Every structure is written in structure tokens, then in C-alpha cells.
Amino acid sequence: MTFKSILAATVATGLLASTALADTIRIAHIDPFSGAFSNVGTVNGKHVQFGADMVNAAGGVLDGDTLEIVRFDNKLSAQETVIAFQEALDQGIRIVTQATSSGVALALADAVKKYNRRNPDDPVLYLNYGSADPSLTRDKCDYFMFRFEAHSGMKQAAATDQIAKDDSIKKVYIIGQDYGHGHEVSRYTKEMLAEKRPDIEIVGDEFHPFGSVKDFTPYIAKILASEADAVVTGNFGSDLSLLIKAANSAGLDAKFFTQYSGTFGTPTAIGEAGEGRIYDAAPWHPDVPVEQGNADAAKMAKDFEAKYDSDLYYVQIVVQMQMLGEAINAAGSAEPAAIAAAMEGMSFDGPTGAMQMRASDHQLFHPLFVSVFTQDGITNDSEDTGLGWKTVLSVDAEHLSDDSTCQVEKP
Amino acid sequence: MKRFVIFLACAAALAAALLLPSLGAGRFVIVMLTQLAIMATFAMSYNVNLGQTGLLSFGHAVYLGAGVFASLYLITAIGEGTVPLPLEFVPLGGALAGFILAAIFGLVSVRRAGVTFAMISLGLAELFVAAAMLFPSVFGGEQGVSTDRMVDYSLTGMGYGRPQEIYMLVLVWAVFSVAAMVFLSRTPLGRLANAVRDNPQRVEYLGYTPYWIRFAQFCIAGTFAGVAGSLFALTYEIANAEVLGLRTSANVLIATYLGGITYVLGPVVGALVVTLLEINLARLTEAWLFYYGLLFIAIILFAPRGLTGILMDTPDAVRRAGWGGLAKALLRWVPVVFLIAAGSVILVELCYHLSNSFDPREPLKLFWTEVNAQSWTPWTVGAVMSISGLAWLAVNRRNAAPRRAQKGGTS
Amino acid sequence: MDTFIFVLVNGLLYGMLLFMLSSGLTLIFSLMGVLNFAHASFYMLGAYFAYQLASFGSFWLGLILAPLLVGCLGAAIERFGLRIVHKHGHVAELLFTFGLAYLIEELVRLIWGRQPVPYRIPESLDFTLFSVSGIDYSAYRAFMLLIAVAMFISVLLLLKRTRVGLMVQAALSHPDVLWAMGHNVPRLFMLVFGGGVALAGLAGVIGGNYLVTEPGMAQQMGTILFVIVVFGGLGSLLGAFLASLIIGITQTLMVTMDGTLTDLITSLGGAAPHATGMFREIWTIAPANLAPVFPYLLLVILLIVRPRGLLGTRES
Fold first, then answer.
1. Which of A175, A160, A169 is nearest to A235 (CA)?
2. CB contact under 8 A, A249 and C141
3. pLDDT one-digit tens code per residue, A207-230
4. Distinct helix (H) and strand (E) counts, chain B
5. Model pTM greater than 0.90?
6. B355–C110: do the CB atoms touch at under 8 Å?
7. What are the C-alpha distances in Å from A162 to residues A167, A283, A293, C184?
8. Size of the B and C interface in Cβ pairs below 8 Å
9. DSSP A138-157
């Protein structure tokens, strides 16, 4: 036996041994974990970790392999995201997840797409846990990218259903941030209301500068002058809190239809000022398991709160990790190409109901809840404010609508 | 002797920059090096204003951005075959864009230096950023503008798909730009600019117009910022209006100043250190912003001529104290500084772990061990270390003060 | 007419909040030449201190103590930080405050967490006081105005009537002479820096609950304060006051105005322009979209025409 053959034998047995032992499947989570947007990044990070832990606690994937989350701080900068992506590639990671900020999501989608085109034999899977921008599953849809939460258009479809149901609403005022998401919300609202309730008059369609308005009173004055019964907004963060606080102090008692009132300190910032007049369209709120009588989901939310001292905001992130686990098992492999093939068209029994990954554009369809911010009949409050959310309309996955015609190209 | 050492250091750095990719550095290292080269060019161009001409600008990112967007469109045009230009010459387009914008803005802003100039530059930058947000048709809104640098038309015949190839191109242009700016600083114009910085009245008596000298320097700075923008576009292939913002402008000011504005190559040193810290510190600790801020303040407090100043003063200090004296001083000060630093790091890490980590109950990885942040032991160790170090320092400083006075004030 | 009154009232209310922030900055900037980039951070600290004190005791405790705490902190920072940097020049001082802003934001995040805190308007002031053209104004907004006016008057009195005030005024116009006369200028600097940031802290106390108290609130304030200070002119409190009001009123006015270039052309009888190609948005931009940048436009134009600012006594 020559030295070379001994070496070869050793390497071969080593390889065999390592495949037989339980492996970890690493997933790069790229998000802002420091600086100005770390509030969003860390909370999302907790959800990703929680989802992976749940999969691992249930026995992991394949033959006891575990999911491991490797976090990369992108400081919400597109360049740093690209650099972090390269670092993840260096470490041999071929599954990435991200969604904080649509701008960064589009930059990462672009980088992943280019990498996959330039390295067709070694593709990367991009799991987007919930960017608002519809274009990710429209003109930018891609075989190796999956989105696990409804985009702003789909949420607006649910919100307009609720508006259509409410006969007291005759006039609607649309106000939003002057950038992609705000414009999308405005466009969808106008299109959908024209179809669902042609008698409703759009009395205003306003865009305000993003993140730089401190005094919303002049805008509220315009809304008051228009005599609107409902205000539709895609605002989030302080733009949303300030808008609602200004409305309250100026004595505007219209209903607000939003998409981000339930998360990241907004309930805290709004407080009692918003009681009974803020409606939110989202895949989750703390009382969903109570209303559905789903003990497993209730336990999941409790576990999350106990572990991380924070409300469970984004059930879809947890769903994403669970679906990843199922797809790996179904494919019998953790190779991105195999996972993508298994994920396409996959059905999943999620904590809020049945879900379906649409094969054509890789957008997940899941239940959505339009709920109102209130004190009455609430079991679990939101962010310890004493107020919580009560469902007024629930839309299951089959009835979600999205008019995307994108068709992913199989490589 | 000193010149020779500097020359040697530059040559060694360049050789390392050229050799690293062929030594099998990963994608991450390559992209990081590319970012370093871009930032070095950008900081050098900034110092044409600040260090050489005494113009403190808060809006230098605008000229970088002009180069970025011009180049993105140019690369797309080359790819479509409408512009017959090899990819290697794209930075010429960026330079032109930077120059044109600097010439327009320069005309109205360089009449005065000092606060007036600084505030005009801030105002123009805010106007330009706002305009960029208002025109998604040009700047792409949140999605940004993207392109593909694999255009099949290059001088060398390389495809520039791989990071190594684009790194070489960026490096060549960065070295060329830095050399050109060093050369320009030695021309009569560069000397006159120094004179205008120090005493504009006297220059006026000599028969020159400070306004036009400032204007010429401002245009040079804008041109090379445009080149840096091109390199950015070539590397990342996507950008949105955020690159124009105050964050980028502040970053280059910080890098340049920390490097040392009175040295020709100071900005290069600053760009290297700041970029390396920004990218890598976050990979070591959650508290990186805190350390970054502290380090930044410490350098401003104790090293007014920047990092290059420290490097340049070291040989003199060695000569004065002798190697023995230096060793003695090091022996005397290094342990105590180390004690304080290590103690404070322990405390800061513990604080961050308790208040910001996902789960404070999990053990904290500290240096080589793991500790429980919720027990008293690590806190006591950290506190004892830093307090004893500080006490030692306080006592010795009191003892050292009279001795220093005898020596004649230098230490 | 209704709109006119609304614009005036709302502009005044908003402008006075801006003035509370910029008055301290203008004193610091005029006297020490320091562009204090951390000024809004002291505003944030004021809000957080007040929140903490309000959760211990009452809002009124915070109203008195929080600005004092912020002032002491500011004086200490001047004494042990800024004073050392002073000899390295203005750029070093500016960058020092820059680094300080970073640190304060990180500290706030460390102590109070990353999400907004529930700092609320005191219930005794949370009722509608008066209405202007259909808009209710709460007693708290009137209270904010009252505090701002009281602050303006007392700072003016302090400057005109007291010995320290006279020294500050002398230092504003002839800093070197004051040295020569044997006054303790460094101590004056410390007092002014501490006092200036205390005013910002006060603005935080009464602005933090009206707006949102969160770690990003300093950054969101942005550079608008510098615009006010430079626009008003170095060394002029009255200039800063006027600049704040002008900006407050124009902001409200621009949001209230409707209409785009397309509307203008069609109202003049022209055909609506075909919006295609690059820069097509120009036809649909409303004045409200331009409101936040309008101050910067004013600033650039003013500085080109009149570099000393509105009421400035000297250039720099």
C-alpha cells in the first residue's frame, strides 16, 4: 500500500463518517443588527432563530441534521449587504434570508440573480421572509427566490374588502410616504375600490416626504377639509405614529387602514389615542390563536414571548423556517436546486391555516387578518399597552388575490 | 530615510494588494479590498477640498453619486451596444459627470470658505438628495438603478464577471487616481490652493483670484469623486439615492480626518482603517458602534494629526527616547492600558448582552471563554480590572507630572 | 381666510418648537464656533430623562429636572472633551460632536432599548383648548407655545440684563477683547454650552411626548437646525427666532397648497403634458413634496446673496 492510497482511503472514510454524522445546514441571515434600524433587524432575527429552533426541536431535517442561523450585519446598507453575501458564499453557505427594507432586498435579489447566472452549477437560494414591494414576485421574480409574506398589494386587497363591507365609509383619503411602497398602496387602493365599491369617492391621494415630516397637522387639516370617513396609509414606523397622533390631537375621527400598526413599537407610540379606529391588515396578531382556538399556535406565541421578551410579530418568518425544513425533507437534500424544486407549489399547514407557495412566481399565499385596535374582548394585548387586536375580517389563502403574471424560468 | 520608508511601505502595500487575489483569498476579502480601493480614491478626492484648499464640505457624496448613476447608465448603454466604449474606460464617464456637477455647484459655493461654504455644501447636498428622491424615473427610487457589467466589450477580453477581475480594474483606476491627485498637489495650482487655505488675502495681493483657485480644486475633487463613483458602480452594479446621502458624506469626512488631512496620503490610511473597522468590527461584537464612536473621539482628542500623524511621529519618538527608553515606556504603560481596556470591554460587552442580545440568559462569548452575564462574577472582574487600572494611572500621573515639567514639557 | 389663520397658528406652533431647539444651538455656534452635531442628541436625552422621571414621579418633575440634568451633562462634556479639542480647530470640534452623537445614540439604545418608549402627554393637559378652522388644538400645544415664549423672554433677559449675559454678548462680537480684559472665557464657554444644550433638553421634554420618543429621534431631526441657525445669522437670537417662524410657516403653507405643473398648464388652457421618459415626475410634483427641502433652498440662496445670514452681526 503506497502512501497515496492510504491518504485516499483516510480521506474517503473521513468523508463517509462526516456524512453519516448529523450535519448542520447553515442559513445566512443578513439584516441590520446594529445602528438605526437594529430595532427591526434584531426582532426579525429572533423570529428567524425561533423558527430554526422549532424545526430542530421537532427532530431537525433529513436524518437529524439541524438548521443553523449565521447572522451578518448589513447596517441596512446595500453595499454591506453585497459584502456580507460574498462572505456567506466564502463560508460555503448557499441559503440566505433577508427582508428588512425593500431597497436592500432588491439589491440582494439582484446580487443573488447575478451570482446564479455566473455560477450556474453552484446556485444560491434566497428566502425573503416578507418584503412589501410587489416587484420581487413580479418583474423581478426568480426561480431561486421565494417570498413568504403577502406583499403590499395583497394586503391592500384584504383591507379594501373590509372597506367595501363597511357601509359607513363613503369617502376615502389616501396618504403615504413618497416612495415605492406608498405609491403601490395608493395605486392598489384606487384600483380595488373602483372595482369593489364604485360609489366610494377618493377625496385625496397625497404623498408626503419619507421620514422627514414632524408636524402632520397640515395634512390632517386637508383630510378634515375633505370630510373623509376613512384614511388609507402604507406608512410605518414614526411616520405612522406621528400621523395617528396628529390626527387624534386635531380631532379627526376617521378610520385608519394600515399595514404596519401592529409591530415594532407602533402600538406603544400610539397608545390609547388609536383605540377603535385603527385597522391593520397583517398575517398575524396576538389574538389570532385565541380566535381560531389553535392551542399549538397559542403555545408558540407564548414560548416566543417567554424566550425573547417580545411579542411574536411575524408568524410568516417562523412559517418560512418550517417550510424550509419540510422542503429539505421532501427533497431529501439540502442543495439549493433540490430545495427550490420541492418548495415550488408546496402546500403547508401553517399556524394560522392552510398555505400555498405559488409555483409561477414563488409568492406564498397565506391567511390574512384585518383587525381593529381595541380594549374590548382582548385576551392578549399588544406590547403591554392594554390594547390589542380583534379580527374583523379574515381572508384565507385561497381567497387572497394577486394579479402577478410573472413566470419564473427554470435554469 | 523617512521618504524611503514611506516609499517602501507604499510599494509593499501595492504588492500585497496585487498578490492577495492570486494567493487564493476568498470572495469576501476581494470585495472588501475593492471597497477599500473605492473608499481610498473617494477620501483622497475629499482631501483635495479639505486638506489642500481648506474647504469643509458636507456634500461630497453628491459627486460620488453623480459618477455612480452616470456609470450605471453608461454600462447599460455599452451592454446594449449604443455606446462604443470598452468597459475599462467607464470611469472616464463618471469623471465627466462628477466634473460637470462640481463645476455647476462650485460656481455658486466657493466664493467663501469656512462656515459659509460648509453650509452651502450642506444645503446643496440636501437639495440634490431630495431631488433624487423625487425623480424615481432617473434614480430608480427605492429599487435603485441596476446594470450588468458583463458587457462583452472590453480591452483585455476579460468578462469581469468574477470579483477578482473587477478588483484588478478598480485597483488600477484607484492607483492611477491617487497618483494623479498626489501629482496635482505638487503643481503650482496645488501650492496656490494651500496658500488660499492659509491666507486668501495674501494670495489676492499676489494677483491671483482665490475664487478661481478654489473653483479649480473643487472641480478636481468632484472629478475624482466621480471616478470613485464609477468604481462603485462597476463593483456593485446597483445603487439607489441613498449613496448620495449625508451618511456617505459624513463617512468620507470621518475617514479623511482620521487619516490625517495634512498628509498627502493621509486619506488613504484613513479610508483603509475606517473601512476595515466598519466591515470587521461588527463581525466581532454587537457593541461595535460604541467602540467605533469611542475610538473616533479618542483619536480626535489625542491625535489631532490623525493616524498618519501617529505613524510619522513614531520614528522621532524612538530617536528621542532610544529603543531602551521606548521599551521601558511600553513596559510601563502597556499593561495598565491593557488592563483598563480589557476591563471596560468586559463591562461594555456585558451591558450589551443584557440589554440587546436575543436572550440574556444564554452564555456570552467573551474573548476565549463563555460567561453568564446574569451572575455577579464577570461584572466584578471587569469592574476590578478597570478601576484598579484607572487608580494606578491616577497615582502615576500625579507622580509623573513634576518629572515632565523638569524635562521641559515634552514626553 | 380660514386657511390663512390656520397656516399662521400652526406655523407658529411648529416654528416655536424649532426655535426651542435652535436657540441653544445658535448661542453655542455663535460663541464657540462649534457646529454642534450632537445638539439633537441632547434633545433626545431630554425626552428620555423626562420619560424616566415621569415614570418615577410626574411630568412636572421631568419638566424641571431633565433640562438641568442635560445641562450638567453638557457642561461636563465641554469641560472634559470639547475644551481639549478646541485647540485643534473647528473641524476637530465638529467631528468631536459628531462622535458624541453616535455615542449618545448607542447609550440611549443600551439603556432604554431599541423600541419607542411610552412617554405620554400629562392627562391634565390632554384636552381640546381651541379650534382653528375645524382643527382642534389641545391644551398641551398651547402649553408648548407658552414654554417656548417664556424661554425666549428669559434668555433675552438673561443676555441683556445680567453680567454673564453681557459677557456673552461681548464675546459674540469681540471674543479676543474679552480675553484681554482678563475674563474667564473657558468658564463662559462651559456655561454657554451647558445652558445651550439644557435648552435643547427642555425642547426634548415637551417635544418628546408630542412626537415619538425613540432612539432615532435625534437623527430624524436632521440638519434642519443648522439651517435655522445659519439662516438667522451668527450671533443673533432674534434671527434664529425669525428663521424658525419662517420655516414653520412655509412648511405648513406648502403642505396646504395643492396643484402641480400639469394643473397649472391645463388651467392656463394648455394640453396636459405627456409624462414619459426621464424626469417625468416634474409634471406631478406638488408643493407639499418640496416642503422639507424648501428651507435648504432658502439657505443656499440667502448664503449666496448675503453670507452673514438674515440678522447676523458677522460672517464667521
1. A175
2. yes
3. 888 877 888 888 888 898 888 889
4. 15, 4
5. no
6. yes
7. 10, 15, 23, 69
8. 126
9. TTT--TTEEE-S--HHHHHH
The neighbour count for residue C272, using CB atoms within 10 Å, is 11
- The ipTM assigned to this model is 0.86
pLDDT single digits (tens) A315-367: 899 999 999 999 999 988 889 999 999 999 899 988 888 898 988 889 999 99
- How many residues in chain A? 411
Flag if C10 and A218 touch (Cβ within 8 Å). Answer: yes
Range(s) of the domain holding residue B392: 315-410
Domain ranges of chain C: 2-305
Instruction: Assess if residue B2 is contained within a domain.
Output: no
Strand segments, DSSP code E, in B13-129 are none
Domain shared by B291 and B347, yes or no: no
Sign of CA dihedral A284, A288, A292, A298: positive
DSSP one-letter code for A410: P
CATH architecture of the domain with range C2-305: Orthogonal Bundle (1.10)
Residues of A in contact with C214 (CB under 8 A): 238, 265, 269
Domains: count for chain B: 2
**Residue in the block written with cell 440678522:** C311
All residues of chain B having their beta carbon less than 8 Å from the beta carbon of residue A45 are: 358
Pairing of β B238-239 and β B145-146:
antiparallel
Helix (H, G, I), strand (E, B) or coil at C143: helix
- Within 10 A of B131 (CB to CB), how many other CB atoms are there? 17
On whether the CB atoms of residues B312 and B292 are closer than 8 A, the answer is: no
Q: Which of C1, C115, C225, C244 to mutate to test the interface with A (most CBs of A within 10 A)?
A: C115
CATH code, domain carrying B49? 1.10.3470
Chain B residues interacting with chain A (CB cutoff of 8 angstroms): 26-32, 35, 130, 133-134, 136, 141-144, 146, 148, 150, 161-163, 232, 236-240, 242, 279, 282-283, 286, 288-289, 356, 358-359
Please report residues of B whose CB lies closer than 8 A to that of A83: 28, 31-32, 35, 279
Taking an 8 Å cut-off on Cβ atoms, the answer to whether A268 and C118 are in contact is: yes
Each as own residue / partner, the long-range contacts of residues B268-274 (CB below 8 Å, 24 or more positions apart, any chain) are: B268/B40, B268/B43, B268/B44, B268/B178, B269/B306, B269/B307, B269/B308, B269/B311, B270/B43, B270/B306, B270/B307, B270/B308, B271/B36, B271/B39, B271/B40, B271/B42, B271/B43, B271/B44, B272/B36, B272/B39, B272/B40, B273/B307, B274/B39
At A4-25, the pLDDT tens digits run 444 444 444 444 444 445 688 9
Helices B27-47 and B246-259 pack at an angle, to 10 degrees, of 80
Q: Residue A135 to residues A105, A172, A402, B365: CA-CA distances in angstroms? A: 11, 26, 12, 41
